[in-house]
Amino acid sequence: MGSLKEELLKPIWHAFTALDVDRSGKVSKSQLKVLSHNLCTLLNVPHDPVALEEHFRDDDEGPVSNQGYMPYLNRFILEKVQGNFDKIEFNKMCWTLCAKKNLPRNILLLSDDDAFKVWVIFNFLSEDKYPLVIVPEEIEYLLKKLTEAMGLGWHQEQFEHYKISLETTWDGLSAWELIELIGSGRFSKGMDRQTVSMAINEVFNELILDVLKQGYMWKKGHRRKNWTERWFVLKPNIISYYVSEDLKDKRGDITLDDSCTVEALPDKDGKKCLFLINSCEKCFEISASDKKKKQEWIQAIQTTLNLLKLNSPPPHKEARQKRKTLRQKLQAEQEELERQMKELQMANENKQKELETVRKQLEEAAARASEEEKKRLQTQMELQDRFSVELEREKMVRQKMEEQVAQKSSELEQYLQRVQELEEMYKQLQEALEDEKQARQDEETVRRLQARLLEEESTKRAELEKWHLEQQQTLQVTEAEKQELENQRMMKEHALQVAMQQLEQLEMDRKQALEQYEEVKKKLEVAASKTKSWKDKVAHHEGLIRLIEPGSKNPHLITNWGPAAFTEAELEQREKSWKGKKEHS
Length: 585
What we know:
The chain has 13 helices and eleven strands. With 585 residues, it is α+β, with helices and mostly antiparallel strands. A seven-stranded antiparallel beta sheet has the order 6-5-4-3-9-8-7, with helices on one face. A hairpin with a 2-residue loop joins strand 4 (227-235) and strand 5 (238-242). The chain is flat, with a radius of gyration of 67 Å. It starts with a helix and ends with a helix. Residues 543-547 have low confidence and may be disordered.
């Protein structure tokens, strides 16, 4: 289903692109509705106009882009395709939309029908990427098939020159460029228009219609047993035979499946080159024109049966898939190689940057070493200058020291003289100390007397402190009693405050109860007034309405209609009310 979807998307893309007149990537909704209706008709898909209108509802203005149309196309059309449709008619509808706008007018060797077939072949061989292009490998494959069909040899050098003449960034040709290339006759070597058309038709039958082999052979009838020449067409699962090669009058089909066989037969009944096809329905005896044709047909039919048993696609589709896989593999290898080259280039650049960084670091280190050497020399010169200055300074200091030594020697003589003077003073001081010693003994006697007096004074002070402590203890006891009384007073004040708060709360509750009582009283008064007015109304309409009350035990009055519903007292009261009303009126 995926391959069928991709196969259908390519012609639809051409049609959508052709409807995009302004090349803005968008198409008007009315054109897309017509395109969708035609696609549903040709693909045998039930058309749902409600879904179409819902998808293209006018909640936004302007045309619809390819991305906006693709969800509807996938959901409501392509996913419902079953394969039971005419592919040629489908391709012709898409071709009609895009050919008038894009088909070049200078295609000398191609008719419109040939151009259509080349366009369909392009869609089959092009890549599954948009915008659609056919890569050089597929162009070479198609041109080889065409030259072989025309009976010509393939010249690889000519195609290589053609590729070189194009741009270096050339990725492939569009459908219209391919049609122009084949129509120009560049690779047909002067072949006429009919030959080119026959070659295109042969390649178209093989690649698009899956015709594996075709040609005239003789078939033996099943009823009359006569031999008739027919045009046989071999496809992957069927052999059809026609009256002639124009394929207009189809005479029957030979269905191929796993149980079919093909085998050669000996010549008989004057017919040569016979072979037999055993199908699930019938056996068909066929006569080829010669042994070569016979062997080719047997081999082709046997190959087809083998492909059916293996559930493999036709050879040209399998070859295309292999070429595509090979291109993808080469592209992946190329991308991997480019990635590795980029990594190597980045690694090389990183290495270059590292080397440049190391070189700069070496240059900076050399510059620093040179600068340090200059500083070292400068420091050495400064040290030499400083050493010479220090040497001069040391000489001056030595000279000063010699002067100081001379000065100190004179000071020493003066000091010795001073020592003698001090010894004499020491003798005088010893005499003074003897006198002071005697004075101290006298002072000690006086101090002992003072100590005795101080001891007596301390005794009296201790007694006074004892009395002071007793007074303080008495004061502390009095203070504790005072604190206890103060605590009791505080507790009573707190209890009084709590009682006052409770009293205020009770007062508020009493007020609220009084207010509720007043409200209830008002409600009772309103209810009483309503009841009184109701009773007045009942009394006013007494003649019409009377409340149902318990009956009196007294004997009832008898009226013309039976026992009365009132007593005599009530009757008298009503008479009085009636008379009063009359007098008032």
